Amino acid sequence: MDSLFPDQPFQICYGNTVLSIRPVDMQDRLAFHVSFSSERKPLLVVRAKDFNASYFWTSMPEGRQKEAEGVGKLIEDYINSHRS
Predict the structure, then answer these.
(1) 32-40 LR contacts (CB < 8 Å, sep 24+)
(2) Phi, psi dihedral angles at 28 (to 5 degrees)
(3) pTM of the model
(4) What is the pLDDT along the chain (84 residues), one digit of tens a residue?
(5) How close are the terminal C-alpha atoms of the chain, in Å?
(6) Count of CB atoms within 10 A of residue 51's CB?
(7) Could you count the other beta carbons within 10 Å of the beta carbon of residue 1?
(8) Any residues with CB less than 8 A from the CB of 14 and at least 6 apart, and which?
(9) Cα–chain center distance at 49
């Protein structure tokens, strides 16, 4: 998926909320700044690798892990559905 990193902002509609997603350059990592149409605070999600070499989504700064996992999955689904 890393080679398919989008270089332009995009939006994802999820329920009644629109996620405005902007790619962020973070040295060989997938990272996105996410703004919500709801009152939820913006979120920076980063795709990281754990000690078992498995990928996961996390928030920066830490503390919104569950939210980052859900948003990361939406981003992955979006990218996979827009492959050329």
Answers:
(1) 32/71, 32/75, 34/71
(2) 65, 20
(3) 0.85
(4) 444 567 889 999 999 999 999 999 887 788 999 999 999 999 999 998 889 989 999 998 889 999 999 999 999 999 989 876
(5) 13
(6) 5
(7) 12
(8) 74
(9) 14
